[in-house]
């Protein structure tokens, strides 16, 4: 029998955490009082999917100076939960392949994945702990490097599954496809248009960054759910 704690970390907890994240996002977006970007002549009395970053939901105040306490508590809390989920997932990821008695290469890669997963989880939690209007530079550091470390983690994850004697290679292929999408996003956030306080940028620049951010988060969630489905199927076979 496969350890129940492993199943909890790889299947049950990620599903619960992703569900909570979506609910918190939706409620935070509904409660968001709106924003204004003067030099773009943009003003909205609600959350904009094309003009507001996800981190806008976590700010203490909106760009127009209105209080955003309720949204910030919900969204920042959900980000800390996401970070915690990643930490637990990659602790159990290693345990899973060891418990399976998988190939030596697969177990070795899973062991390497664990500390990288811990770093990625801490960085994502850091995005929630440091809203952009509390300390912009620290917030950007946590956000950008969370995705950079995630890229390394996804490669290790894909290789671990690829060398597994038990998991289908289609799960490795699915994660590698996500790696390619993530690489494009890394290019955008590190080499693309600069968006920030006291920075002039065009509306197109803003929309590129905002839409690409939401796209990569959605892609990440779908990729994780596919992996969770694979682990769940293998658990059923092994038990």
Strand arrangement, major sheet: 1-2
Strand count, sense and barrel status of the largest sheet are: 2 strands, antiparallel
Number of separate domains: 1
Average pLDDT, rounded to a whole number, is: 94
Helix content: over 70%
Amount of beta strand: under 5%
Helix-strand category? mainly alpha
Order of helices and strands: HEEHHHHH
**Helical run tally:** 6
- Number of strand elements: 2
The span between the termini is 5 Å
Low-confidence stretches: none
Q: State Rg.
A: 19 Å
Which descriptor suits the 3D outline?
A: elongated
Provide an overview of this structure.
- The protein has 239 residues and is an all-alpha fold.
- The chain has one domain.
- It has helices at residues 4-31, 69-100, 104-129, 136-162, 169-191, 203-238; strands spanning 35-37, 42-44.
- It has a two-stranded antiparallel sheet with strand order 1-2.
- Helix 1 (4-31) packs antiparallel against helix 2 (69-100), helix 2 runs antiparallel to helix 3 (104-129) and helix 4 (136-162) packs antiparallel against helix 5.
- The longest helix has 36 residues, at 203-238.
- The relative contact order is 0.13.
Which helices and strands appear, and what pairs or packs with what?
Elements: H1 4-31, E1 35-37, E2 42-44, H2 69-100, H3 104-129, H4 136-162, H5 169-191, H6 203-238
Descriptive keywords:
two-stranded antiparallel sheet; mainly alpha; elongated; 239 residues; 72% helix
What is this entry, summarized?
With 239 residues, the protein is mainly alpha-helical. It has one domain.
């Amino acid at each position: 029998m496969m350890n129940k704690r492993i199943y909890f970390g790889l299947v049950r907890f990620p599903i619960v955490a992703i569900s909570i994240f979506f609910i918190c996002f939706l409620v935070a977006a509904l409660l968001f009082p709106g924003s204004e970007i003067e030099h773009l002549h943009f003003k909205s009395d609600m959350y904009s999917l094309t003009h507001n970053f996800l981190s806008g939901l976590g700010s203490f105040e909106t760009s127009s100076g209105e209080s955003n306490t309720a949204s910030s508590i919900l969204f920042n809390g959900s980000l800390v939960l996401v970070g915690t989920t990643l930490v637990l997932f990659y602790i159990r990821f290693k345990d899973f392949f060891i418990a399976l008695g998988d190939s030596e290469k697969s177990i070795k890669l899973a062991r390497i994945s664990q500390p990288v997963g811990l770093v990625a989880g801490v960085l994502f939690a850091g995005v929630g702990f440091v809203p952009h209007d509390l300390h912009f530079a620290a917030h950007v550091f946590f956000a950008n490097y969370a995705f950079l470390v995630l890229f390394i983690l996804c490669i290790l994850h894909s290789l671990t599954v690829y060398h597994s004697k038990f998991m289908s290679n289609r799960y490795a292929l699915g994660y590698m496809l996500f790696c390619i999408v993530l690489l494009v996003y890394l290019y955008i956030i590190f080499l693309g248009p600069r968006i920030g306080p006291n920075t002039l940028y065009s509306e197109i620049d803003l929309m590129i960054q905002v839409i690409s951010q939401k796209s990569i988060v959605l892609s990440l969630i779908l990729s994780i759910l596919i992996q969770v489905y694979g682990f769940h199927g293998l658990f059923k076979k092994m038990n």
